[in-house]
Amino acid sequence: MNDIEESASASSSRDAWQALLADQQELLKHPATHHKALITGAHALHRARIIDSDDLSDLLEQADGALAYAVEALLDEWQGG
């Protein structure tokens, strides 16, 4: 694989992770499973050296934020809010 292909693959992998993060319907349907997929994906990007430790930290924080959002949204729905 040449540098251009590697760059495109890395960009595609990051884009796929961001798309997963943005999938609110799936997040609200299965919050724990969705969170686990985000965490697993972030670690896979790091192991593949597509992202560095700082980026990994950012992605993990975003994944945790998504889970917190889902829990709040589901609690609001459950409470009739």
Task: Give a quick summary of the entry.
The chain is 85% helix and 0% strand.
Structural description of this entry:
By secondary structure, the chain is an all-alpha fold. The chain has one domain. Helices cover 85% and strands 0% of the residues. It contains four helices and no strands. Helix 1 packs antiparallel against helix 3 and helix 3 runs antiparallel to helix 4. The mean pLDDT is 91.
Main attributes of the structure:
85% helix, mainly alpha, 4 helices, elongated, 81 residues
**How much beta, percentage-wise?**
under 5%
Number of helices: 4
- Would you identify the regions where 5 or more consecutive residues have pLDDT less than 50? none
For the secondary structure, the number of strands is: 0
N-to-C SSE string, H for helix and E for strand? HHHH
Distance between the termini: 52 Å
**Global mean pLDDT:** 91
Largest sheet: none
Topology:
Elements: H1 3-22, H2 24-29, H3 31-47, H4 53-78
